[in-house]
Structure formats: structure tokens, C-alpha cells
Design brief:
Number of domains: 2
Largest sheet: 6 strands, mixed
Order of helices and strands: EHHEEEEHHHEHHHEEHEEEEEEH
Mean pLDDT: 84
Strand content: 5-15%
Shape: globular
Number of helices: 10
Helix content: 25-40%
Structural class: alpha+beta
Distance between the termini: 68 Å
Length: 366
């Protein structure tokens, strides 16, 4: 029996097998090499910002933290509290999947330059997640800022109304907006074309369930957009308010073309309101777990509120039919010095100590 062929539609779930974009992958070793080169000659603006984090005071119950209490400016000495499990984990490497037009691949342009351009931002975004962020997805385009903003608003519309079933009136609106952006980009000879960008991005959302996806425009545009898939994944404004924009211009403003990081939290971040649960995958759940990385003991599980815009997006829970508003609490042993992490047993605290001692110190709370 002949297999049913998939076809592309702005309102139907696509697959990555349908995309014509070329995928280039940089594994953990390539990422580690890039980080080593960056640490050898770090930008003074970023280095000053990391040093300023050593003086920052936190609330003990603050969900997001970036701590550098001891040692030199190295990955293993900078710790981040993860938003999904509440652990204090040092900055780590990841695998990057870069989707680009075939012309870039044919010219044999390396994608390491793309990753290196956003390396500090990627290190921090990776560190914010304990699970589900081992792979980062980047789609390379040549969009100008205004075009990028229009594309971003389109994806917000599609994810809000067409991530699953779509009403006929909304389907027509999405198709008209899709045609408008497609023709506008075609007149400007943008590569890849908008249908390929749309197909690749939505396929990644459906199949990979990433914490965020990045639309990146290389020089001379040098502008990128980070599309988060849940409001809890957005960096906290209290920590990243003074984060460098990446622009070499000392008079840079928030409207700078190179501004990439949502330094103002949810105010400037772009969040895609994706349906979750059931056939749309697991819901997001905020947990507090034993700090020993190989332990699965969970001390608390709480339901996150829906996104501020009132979407149907929920929180991450297992699909076992339980009430998502129930919070489970299991007692744990708090670290007596820093009082930031919990352990399920003294044995796991001993096992985690070689790593935790790099950040463990008596804290001055607000």
C-alpha cells in the first residue's frame, strides 16, 4: 500500500523530513573548543558583567541565580540555578543544530562562527536548564530587523491559534498573513524563503520540544531573535538587566540592531504560546530536586501559572490524569553553609561535594 505523502500547510504540523534547509551539527567537543577560545580572549564588557555578578545579592527563594563565588573565570566555577529542577549546576556545553540555506553550505561557510557570535548568551541560556536543553536549534536567515519582528509576530499568532486544531476564520487569517510575508521576502530576495523558515521552525517545535529556538541573521545584519516556548524559560530581569547587548558602539540603546538578549525579562522577550499536554507532549512543571545530578528524588512539584497573555499553555506534568494544581512536598536536607540546595541523603551530599564546594559559601541575602 502506497504511503501517504506529507504536504506543507501553514496550519498543519510539519516534519523535519520535509525541510530543504541544510542541517549542520556542532557537538559538545566543538562547543568546548569555542568556549576555550572565548575564555582565552574574553570581551572586556562581558567579563566586567560576570565580575559584577559576584557582588549581586539574591533572595534565598529566588528561582533564577547566577553565582561565581570562587576561583578563576572558568565554566566549572560559574553556577546557575536551573529553572526546571532548582539545582545549582556549573555552565556546561551542548550540541548545536544549525539550519541554513543550501547556498551557505555550498560556499563551505563554517557554522562555528554563528555559534561563536552568540556564545555568551548561549552559555547562559543553556545553564538555566537542567533537562531538555542539551540541544540548541538555530535557523540562519538574512532578515532585517523589521522583517524579523514581523516573522516573530506571525509565529506567535500561529502557535497561539494553530498549534493543533484551528478555527476556519483564524486559518484564513494565518494563510493571508503567510502569503503577505512570503511575497514581501520574495521581493527582497531573502534566503531561505519564508515557507522554509516556517516549516523548519514549526517542525522543531513539534518534534524536538526545545526550550527556545533562535532566528539568526549574520553580518552585515547581525541581528537575532530568541523565541522562548514558555514564560518560565525567560531570563530574570533582576539578574540580566545590565547584560551587554553585544554591540561595539558605546552609545548602544535598547533599539540597537545587535540586541539579542531579553535583558528586561518578559517585557522584551518573545514567548510562543504553545499548547501542551496530551498529544502535544508533556506539560511544564517546576521542581526542586536533590542537587546530586544523578538523583531523581523530587522535593517539590508545583504548577506554574499560565502565561501572562492568558494562553491555553499549562505547566509541565506527566500525563497520568492527576490534578496539575497539586503540589508534592518531600523533606530534604538543606546545605548548612550556602542554604541554597537540598539533598535526599548524606551520601548524595558527599558525592556532590567535589562540584558543590566550588560555589558553596555563606551567602549575604537581601
Amino acid at each position: 500500500m502506497a504511503q501517504k505523502r506529507s504536504f506543507y500547510s501553514p496550519t498543519r504540523p510539519p516534519t523535519l523530513a520535509m525541510t530543504e534547509l541544510v542541517k549542520m551539527t556542532l557537538d559538545h567537543h566543538h562547543t568546548a573548543d569555542l568556549i576555550t577560545k572565548w575564555l582565552e580572549h574574553p570581551n572586556d564588557i562581558y567579563l566586567d558583567w560576570f565580575y559584577s555578578r559576584r557582588e549581586q545579592k539574591y533572595d534565598r527563594d529566588q528561582r533564577q541565580m547566577l553565582l561565581w563565588n570562587k576561583g578563576d573565570f572558568l565554566l566549572e566555577n560559574i553556577f546557575c540555578r536551573t529553572v526546571d529542577t532548582g539545582r545549582l549546576i556549573p555552565l556546561r556545553t551542548w550540541t548545536t543544530h544549525v539550519y541554513c540555506h543550501c547556498s551557505i553550505h555550498d560556499r563551505k561557510r563554517t557554522m562555528m562562527r554563528v555559534v561563536f557570535t552568540m556564545l555568551p548568551e548561549l552559555m547562559l541560556l543553556r545553564a538555566m536548564h537542567d533537562r531538555g536543553c542539551d540541544e540548541i536549534f538555530i535557523i540562519v536567515t538574512d532578515l532585517q530587523r523589521q522583517e524579523m519582528d514581523e516573522v516573530t509576530e506571525y509565529f506567535k499568532l500561529v502557535c497561539r491559534h494553530a498549534f493543533g486544531s484551528c478555527k476556519p476564520g483564524m486559518e484564513k487569517r494565518i494563510q493571508l498573513e503567510h502569503m503577505r510575508i512570503t511575497h514581501a521576502m520574495h521581493r527582497q530576495r531573502r534566503t531561505p524563503c519564508f515557507p522554509q523558515i516556517d516549516l523548519a521552525l514549526r517542525a522543531i517545535l513539534y518534534e524536538k520540544r526545545p526550550r527556545f529556538v533562535i532566528l539568526f541573521s549574520p553580518p552585515p545584519t547581525s541581528y537575532s531573535q530568541i523565541l522562548f516556548t514558555h514564560h518560565s524559560y525567560v531570563p530574570d530581569e533582576e539578574i540580566f538587566f545590565e547584560y551587554p547587548s553585544g554591540c561595539p558602539n558605546p552609545c548602544c540603546t535598547d533599539n540597537c540592531e545587535m540586541l539579542r538578549f531579553p535583558r528586561r525579562g518578559l517585557e522584551t522577550a518573545h514567548v510562543l504560546e504553545i499548547k501542551r499536554g496530551g498529544k502535544f507532549g508533556k506539560r511544564v512543571k517546576q521542581k526542586t530536586m536533590c542537587n546530586w545530578i544523578e538523583c531523581d528524588v523530587c522535593f517539590s512539584e508545583e504548577t506554574l501559572p499560565k502565561s501572562t497573555s492568558g494562553s491555553s499553555e499549562g505547566t509541565e506534568s506527566s500525563e497520568n490524569g492527576t490534578d496539575p494544581s497539586v503540589q508534592r512536598v518531600v523533606p530534604g536536607q538543606l546545605c548548612s553553609q550556602c542554604r541554597l540546595v537540598r539533598y535526599c541523603s548524606l551520601d548524595h551530599q558527599r558525592r556532590d561535594w567535589p562540584e558543590h564546594k566550588k560555589v558553596c559559601a555563606k551567602m549575604q541575602w537581601e
